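re: ur question from yesterday

yeah so i grabbed the chain u mentioned. its 218 aa long if i counted rite. heres the sequnce exactly as i have it in my notes:
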Amino acid sequence: MSQPTESILSAEKAQHALWSALQSGELRDGQFLSMSQLVGILECPIAAVREAVKQASALGLVSTLPKRGVQVMEARPETIRNCLDFRKVLDQEGARRRIAGNAFSELNALRVQHDEMRLAAQNNSARNLPPKAIEVDLSLHNYLAEGLNNSQLMATYNANRIRMAIIQNARPFLQDRIVSAMEEHLAIIDAIENCNVGIVVDAIQYHYEQTLRWWGIN
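ran it thru and got these structure tokens back, copy pasting raw so excuse formatting
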């Protein structure tokens, strides 16, 4: 294997490791790390880690502090509002395109997942519901994002998804929020199924507003 190819693969591995650490919460919002600490966490060569940090910095996931290290994005109110607003706008457009293209094949499965999670939360049937609820929550947002059918829009959506994961790790999904969140998602699913663009746009707007409210952001 040539040295340039090895360098590329190493850089890709470091980027994947950094993305995973941010999404999993291994690296948390506002956390400061020296470059050597980050190398140890990601288990990649320093040159590859520096390249990954450069990419993350360009996406607003981290900030580089000269001669000091790296700081993970902070989940400040303004940042949370901007990230949620960004997702809302693309979710609304994804829903419009799903309706325009009659792309509804996944809706029934989504409805079942959301109904089951709503009922489980109402019955308080498990202590580990919040992590599972996040998976169900993401399933609808993934469906809307894929409805964009545009690689450039998807790339920006995916970058914002990592920002949202950092925020979500800082502000965990409270069990009391699960029922209302599932109901808001079910309203979005209903509107898509009924091919009502106006209602689905309003339903996504309402979901955005309620998420901000639950996170204590005006």
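noticed a couple things. The mean pLDDT is 91. also The beta strands are 32-33, 62-65, 69-72.
anyway ttyl
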